[in-house]
Amino acid sequence: MTDAERNRIFEEWIEAHKAILFKVARAYGSTHADREDLFQEIALQVWHSVAAFRGDSAVATWIYRVALNTALAWSRKERKHGTGRQDFDAATALLVAPPDRDPRLEWIYRQIAELDEVNRSLALLMLDGFSYRDMSQILGLGESNVGVRINRIKAALTARLAKEQTDGL
Amino acid sequence: MDFDQMMDAWKSQDERPLYGVNGDLLRLVLRHEQADIRRALRWDQWTTYVVGTVMAAVAIASLWAFLHLRGMSVPAVAAMSAALGAAMLWIGALWLSRRRQSVREREFGSTLQEEVRRNLSLIDYRLSQVGRWSNLLLWSAPIVASASLIVWLIMEINGIEDLWLTAGTAAFLIVSIAATTYESSRTARQELLPRRQRLAELLEMLNSP
């Protein structure tokens, strides 16, 4: 596969599935700088993975797998903030945040951030409607294990939602 | 907000993404990444195979020239052949070791759990090579032997027979090489062991009910 072909496929994937990268970066990065670094790292890994994609799964599933692998392996000590951006102003941002934020989404991400790293992955996949089978294949866990964890996550979210009713969300 | 409303809020991200992306900046980052990969590959090939082989070849050629000037004999030819054979074996062992590790890494699947196992395998491999100073010394032995041989040849050619100078030079070489190797190995362990610990914890989290 030539570089041009890889870049073309990568740009198509990012255009169609950039929401996946945003969600994972938002869930695993605690500050905006961390999210930028993690987004950049995930994008790089997705780019690397283009040549290895054989079409055995949907592109969204593949990208989720790469993104979650990257997020779990990512460490703040390996921050690359600014790496590869020598030709741009140091303050140029890779991610541009919208002026208004949905408080409901902020609440959801706060709850996700309280989960451990593995359950955080499951929460993201559950919210995006993946089947237990898909989750099992992405994470390498047994389906029953996935089911038990998902039920716990749902129960915890439902309990917190009930508690937050008075906040007017 | 109830559970269904929460799911609706979540799905709204697909229509209204959380962020915008600076496309030009992302493309630039990728170009730098491609350049970095090519540079790292060239560096790896250059230092591991070319420099090591050239150093071993220069040492062997120097020894051959020295012995030829003094008159080659059967034991000298045997010593030369042994040195050449050892150098070839070293190159072969290094190549085989890396190839086996590549094959081992390809056997892992692409799930998250398998990816963690693959990374663990890679770290264990690096620890086996550089994590113990005795192993690091073994892998750098041909370069160490070549340096020692060149120093000895220089002293022989210049007719330096001072025992204390010879012993002092040898002691300096041994101590500096051992200290450098020990320090390199300690630094590598400091970097690799925490990463190994984190991966092991991740694997345990994945395997726990």
TrEMBL record, chain A:
Q: Where is the RNA polymerase sigma factor 70 region 4 type domain?
A: 106-157
| Entry keyword Transcription regulation | yes
Q: Name one GO biological process term.
A: DNA-templated transcription initiation
Q: Which UniProt keywords apply?
A: Sigma factor, Transcription, Transcription regulation
Q: Does the keyword Transcription regulation apply?
A: yes
Q: Which InterPro entries match?
A: RNA_pol_sigma-70-like, RNA_pol_sigma-70_dom, RNA_pol_sigma70_r2, RNA_pol_sigma70_r4_t2, RNA_pol_sigma_r2, RNA_pol_sigma_r3/r4-like, WH-like_DNA-bd_sf
Gene Ontology molecular-function annotations: DNA binding; sigma factor activity
* Pfam entry (one): Sigma70_r4_2
Domain RNA polymerase sigma-70 region positions: 14-80
Q: Which family does it belong to?
A: Belongs to the sigma-70 factor family. ECF subfamily.
NCBIfam families per the UniProt record, alphabetical: sigma70-ECF (TIGR02937)
Q: What is this protein called?
A: RNA polymerase sigma factor
